[in-house]
Amino acid sequence: VLALVANTAPVAFGAMATPIITLAQVSGLSTETLGAMVGRQTPIMSAFVPLALVAIVDGRRGMRETWPIAPTGGVVFGLGQYATSNFVSVPLADVIASLLSALAIVLLVRARRTRAETQPAEIPAEAEPGETSTDRRASVLRAHAPYGIVIAVFVVCQISVVKKLLETATFAVRWPGLNLYTAKGTVSALPKFTLNLLTTPGSDTSANSLFGALQVAAATKAGLSPVLMAASNSSGGVLGKMISPQNLAIGAAAVEFRGKEGDLFRRVVVWSLVFLAFICALSGLQAYVLSWMVP
Q1: Nearest CA-CA partner of 45 in 208, 272, 248, 245
Q2: Is 151 within 8 Å of 14 (Cβ atoms)?
């Protein structure tokens, strides 16, 4: 449940912003503009995801005990996403935000521990000192090696020479009949980006490739911002990952919880709807009230 709920806010910029790059290709909009718009939506949700995870584990008591730490991690991650996607590099948004968030949490925990150590504590005379253990540097490096390798691979793949080499082996599959999938009638900014959640494709990249052009066309006909609607397609699509059938099946199999996908669904669907309502409200405000947030 924790993994499914946590796998929301970072998804739009995941895999070196592959979902946004795909969305730019199918929508005709620039990657930088879409990344900047998504960077003004998902970071706000990111600030609340750590609190949701703590609430799932330990309820209100856990939120009280981790109150300074959880919001700090979420807020720093969100600020890192916003700053990186708008001013540095869209593909590096999650990487830089994650590093900044981890650094902020470590510094906060050390500061709290140092402050606690400076306060005298009453220790009984007969009490024996406890044993302390620290992880060896080699163990720490092995634990972090997979993440470093993944980051290195995606960074290398973003180099222009390597990207052009990989594009020579790219095979585009054209699906007949997609041009018949059009939107008709009056369109509002509120329900459009729930399409990804309702269809639960399980992949923000796949959802963007399927519905990105549709959202832009519908926004143009409705007089809405194509950038906002396309970005909201990606921001809202990440919420479908936690309730998609394949992700539920994979999550259940990973923890030897086979046959209990329905139980997982009931646990996570509430959070999916809560975050969806938040994204709906935010995108609606950005369409009509906070239009200055749209690049």
Answers
A1: 272
A2: no
State the residue for tokens 């890192």: 80
Distance (Å) of CA 78 to CA 8, 38, 271? 13, 11, 19
Q: Which phi and psi angles does 92 have, rounded to 5°?
A: -95, 10
Q: H or E segment at 247?
A: helix 245-254
Task: List % helix, strand, coil for the chain (3-state, nearest 5).
Answer: 75, 0, 25
pLDDT tens per residue across span 135-176: 678 887 887 788 778 778 877 877 788 888 888 877 766 666
12-53 pLDDT, tens digit each: 888 788 889 999 999 889 999 999 999 999 999 888 898 888
- The pair of structure tokens assigned to 283 is 């995108």
Length in residues, the chain: 295
Amino acid identity, position 285:
L
Among 5, 29, 3, 1, smallest CA distance to 233 is for 29
Tokens at 293, concatenated: 């947030």
Q: Which residue has the tokens 């080699």?
A: 138
Mean pLDDT of the chain: 80
Nearest CA among 181, 171, 8 for reference residue 78: 8
Closest CA to 278 of 47, 67, 73: 47
Question: Torsion angle, CA of 79/42/74/16, rounded to 10 degrees?
Answer: -80
Give the CA distances from residue 183 to residues 72, 119, 191, 192, 215, in Å, rounded to whole numbers and listed in that order. 42, 65, 13, 10, 9
Rounded Cα gap, residues 51 and 60, in angstroms: 10
Most confident of 84-93, 122-131, 207-216, 257-266: 84-93
Q: Give the per-residue pLDDT at 200.
A: 52
CA dist., res. 119 & res. 291, Å (int): 50
